[in-house]
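Today's session is about reading a structure prediction critically. Students often jump straight to the picture, but the first step is always the sequence itself: look for stretches that repeat, for charged clusters, for runs of hydrophobic residues. Only then move on to the predicted structure, which in these notes is written as discrete structure tokens rather than atom positions. Here is the chain we will use throughout the hour.
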Amino acid sequence: MDARGPEAPGGRALRDAAENLFQELQEHFQALTATLNLRMEEMGNRIEDLQKNVSDLMVQAGIENSIKQQMVRLLRNYVNLLRIF
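Below is the predicted structure for this chain, in token form.
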């Protein structure tokens, strides 16, 4: 007997079953976490590939420079507005 007092009949079996269930849940959670991390990494790689392909297509279409020029103009306008204030 320990400091918790007398144990109810079947209490040890119930506690052991709960501990086993908790262990199984923990193992499943760890496996799920590993799977999710792997899939997130794969998705990140796919997004990077997609960004590269879109950039390549923009270069082929000749619109990359026009977008860069628009961004430069917008930034210049923004800087000019900041100088006013």
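Discussion point for the tutorial: Helices lie at 11-61, 64-84.
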